[in-house]
Design a protein that fits this description.
This protein is about 25% helix and about 20% strand. The chain is α+β, with helices and mostly antiparallel strands and about 160 residues long. The protein folds into 2 domains: about 40 residues; about 110 residues, no CATH class. The radius of gyration is 26 Å and the shape is globular.
């Protein structure tokens, strides 16, 4: 009986210590993830290329960015139903690809929602709802007012 009690006690102790050890390891892993996240760098915009359109600006996931010819510097003229097809680009912190100057990027405050939207050379940037994956440029030239952005883009005056 004493022998069984001794074995049972030792077994329980080993299980307890093993459980405590795993918690300490899990806690250490969580600390690394939290600390690692704080050390991550900003997302980067990309310069991609397509046979049809040439080089164009995309977000960090490779989704094409567009501008609206009817916008004005510092002001979006795309609201309501327009935003359903052309969601605003709102990424907060990003690096820019070679050939672009970070100083050319800023934000505007949307008059309709009050939200901030990223702008390039004052013109708000958008996605196109029909672009479903990286490399899609389905919005290029839509209604002769929607265009991709690249470092050679000349905005309307």
């Amino acid at each position: 009986m004493k022998k069984r009690m001794f074995i049972l006690t030792n077994f329980a102790m080993v299980m307890f210590l093993t459980a405590c050890g795993n918690n300490a390891q899990d806690s250490a892993k969580e600390d690394q993830v939290v600390n690692g996240a704080a050390e991550e760098t900003a997302e980067s915009l990309k310069l991609l290329e397509n046979e049809k359109t040439g080089k164009y600006l995309a977000d960090s996931k490779g989704m094409t960015l567009y501008y609206f010819k009817k916008d004005e510097p510092g002001k979006s003229n795309c609201a309501g139903e327009c935003l359903e097809n052309w969601p605003p680009f709102t990424e907060k912190d990003f690096d820019v690809p070679e050939g672009f100057d970070k100083k050319d990027f800023g934000t505007i405050k949307r008059e309709d929602t009050g939200a901030e939207q990223v702008a390039y050379k004052g013109f708000p940037l958008y996605y196109f709802a029909n672009d479903k994956q990286e490399g899609h440029v389905n919005g290029e030239g839509v209604k002769d007012v929607w265009y991709i952005v690249n470092n050679e883009t000349v905005f309307p005056q």
